Amino acid sequence: MTTDPVNLTADLIRCESVTPKEAGAIVLLEELLSQAGFKCNRVDRGEVSNLFARWGSGKTIGFNGHTDVVPVGSLVDWSVDPFGAEIKNGFLYGRGSTDMKSGVAAFAAAAIDFVQNSPPDGSIVLAITGDEEGQAKDGTLALLDWMNKNNEIINHCIVGEPTCPEKMGEMMKIGRRGSMTAYFTVRGIQGHSAYPHRAKNPLPVMAKLIYDLTSHELDKGSKHFDASTLAVTTIDTGNTANNIIPAETKATVNIRFNDKHTSEKISAWLNKIINKIATENNIEINIEIQVSGESFVTALGEFSSLVSNSVYSETGIYPEPSTSGGTSDARFIKDHCPVVEFGLVGKTMHQIDERVSIDQIYKLKAIYFNIIKNYFA
After folding, report:
1. Contact 333, 147 (CB under 8 A)
2. What is the largest CA-CA distance in the chain?
3. Which of 18, 80, 199, 326 stands the most exposed, by the fewest C-beta atoms within 10 Å?
């Protein structure tokens, strides 16, 4: 008897687990894995539900995934119930179908079938979080904190995020860029626009700051990464009057950086720029910095080759090792063990009418099964 990953994906989709709601998804997996002989521990923190499930002992391959999903947006724009798990024309529809309840279901199904049919001389772990799409402070980080306190070890880990741009099997992630956001506030003195000498206008200062930031080339890329980027995401003054010089203006920039930088070095560069501009203009500039993660890369080697060969055996394609895209929870796991990401085609993730090919779910289960089999071979 085998575990059907499509039925499991559908059951997970029917759980309305918009971050940080658990909505039954973690409970469903806990019951299923417990019945298959996995020792399950709930690692809840704050409002977030997390699950750590281990089968066996010794050499351990782990899987990390999330059951939380982003909001559905406008319901009237969906052609189906976003939590109905409807199947149409060979696709399973629903919020989280691609990102990433199908990935969780595929690995859980593969792991259950493997331990029941050919128990390995080793261990399989599933570390499932309900806080990947949110602040990510009480999800995988909570699991890793709990693991450290309880001497739980994973030797190598797969993260099941969608990694393929167009075709199943074409890409795996061996690293991610770092991500940080800087929030700037320039404070001047409000005044009448007819008497600018009596005021101190923060807007030209902010314009100078933004120009200096955006005209600076952070780098030209590195061996495994494209060039780092800085994007201005908002400039806000909120002034609706045309005869008032405002007292304050704010701006936000997001920086995605490669392994030529650390968040500490970029923070020092940002502070150097604002201190120079503030001094030249005799004006107050404040900055707040939020770091989402540092850049990292998993060295190509035995584990990445194992994943690549397992993908090839099911798809006929060797996946390109890539560091493209945004952040994932791999940024936390890389401090614990080597990590590689592989999952479905992610074209519809976070979209209206998010959907996944039924065939891809079955193929992903087969790939994960092969990864486990080859890991213990």
Report:
1. no
2. 82
3. 326
267 and 317 assigned to the same domain: no
Distance CA 190, CA 200 (A): 7
| Closest C-alpha to 101, from 129, 67, 140 | 67
Q: Which two tokens stand for residue 183?
A: 């929030």
- Secondary structure of residue 341 in the 3-state scheme: strand
Q: What's the confidence (pLDDT) of residue 325?
A: 87
Domain span at residue 34? Answer: 5-176+295-375
Residue 1 pLDDT exceeds 80: no
pLDDT band of residue 143 (cuts 50, 70, 90) is very high
- Using alpha carbons only, give the angle 318, 322, 327 rounded to the nearest 5 degrees: 135
User: Given this model, what pLDDT does residue 236 score?
Assistant: 97
| Percentage of the chain lying above the pLDDT 70 cut | 100
Helix (H) or strand (E) holding 368: helix 358-375
Active site residues: 68, 132
Total number of domains constituting the chain: 2
What is the C-alpha separation between 117 and 229, in angstroms, rounded? Answer: 48
Where does the chain show beta strands of DSSP type E?
A: 39-42, 50-56, 60-66, 87-88, 91-93, 123-129, 156-159, 171-173, 175-176, 178-187, 191-192, 229-236, 244-245, 248-257, 284-293, 296-297, 320-322, 339-341, 355-357
Whether 74 and 194 share a structural domain = no
Distance CA 315, CA 296 (A): 27
pLDDT band at 326 (very low <50, low <70, confident <90, very high): confident
When the pLDDT of each residue in the chain is averaged and rounded to a whole number, the result is 97
* Averaged pLDDT for residues 356-367: 98
